[in-house]
């Protein structure tokens, strides 16, 4: 089982990501357009740097890449199956007990 403070930290990151998602996407879109215009020769570097400063002012933990996949049952970060949202240990336990529909133990 993962430490409670780690789980709380991840939960806090999820909240921040959802809070700043729209703002982050808006700034990214604006930056993409400015870079595209800069390549065509229509915009200057100052506009791009101003938008980058806006982007850098966002909290670090509002970035989706800082979120770690964790098992919903145990909170473990390693051995994670995305399809089920479980770590390998919890997956094996639930699969052996027949709690995961459609999962059958291999035999040949």
From TrEMBL:
GO terms for molecular function: structural constituent of ribosome. Transmembrane segments: none annotated. Coiled coil: none annotated. The keyword Ribosomal protein applies. This is Small ribosomal subunit protein uS14c. HAMAP family: Ribosomal_uS14_1. It comes from Poterioochromonas malhamensis. The keyword Plastid applies. Belongs to the universal ribosomal protein uS14 family. InterPro entries: Ribosomal_uS14, Ribosomal_uS14_bac/plastid, Ribosomal_uS14_CS. PROSITE patterns: RIBOSOMAL_S14.
């Amino acid at each position: 089982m993962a430490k409670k403070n780690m789980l709380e930290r991840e939960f806090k990151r999820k909240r921040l990501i959802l809070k700043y998602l729209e703002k982050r996407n808006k700034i990214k879109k604006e930056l993409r357009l400015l870079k595209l215009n800069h390549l065509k020769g229509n915009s200057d570097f100052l506009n791009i740097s101003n938008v980058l400063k806006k982007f850098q002012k966002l909290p670090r933990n509002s970035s989706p890449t800082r979120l770690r996949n964790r098992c919903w049952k145990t909170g473990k970060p390693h051995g994670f199956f995305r399809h089920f949202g479980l770590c390998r240990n919890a997956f094996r336990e639930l699969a052996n007990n027949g709690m995961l529909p459609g999962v059958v133990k291999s035999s040949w």
